[in-house]
Amino acid sequence: QVQLVESGGGLVLAGGTLRLSCAASGRTFSTYGMGWFRQAPGKERDFVARINTIGGSTYYADSVKGRFTISRDTAKNTVYLQMNSLKPEDTAVYYCAADADLRTQPGAYYMPLTYDYWGQGTQVTVSS
User: pLDDT digits over 96-122, tens only?
Assistant: First the structure.
């Protein structure tokens, strides 16, 4: 069982920065693919970024590419999402998620159903 706890959300002006953290429990954290998703009011949960365990390769939604960076510190069992040049349309609840299946193919990285564990979410609000 894995528990995920997000932190670092808040209110920021457009153009500002935030860094989200996701602290994970469990000895097998280092073997999980980790993702960030976000959900705005009345909308579906959308993929933001993913980092794999093998090779540490990263994937991003087009809407955040070049502005957001996902990283992981295995020693601290933590995944980060550095968010720069924030826009009002980035406003959402941000969720951390863990994928326990090492066989997941890239085509599935973007789907919430791929992930086995979820955090409770942290609110990010970007004002114009």
Answer: 999 999 899 999 999 999 999 999 999
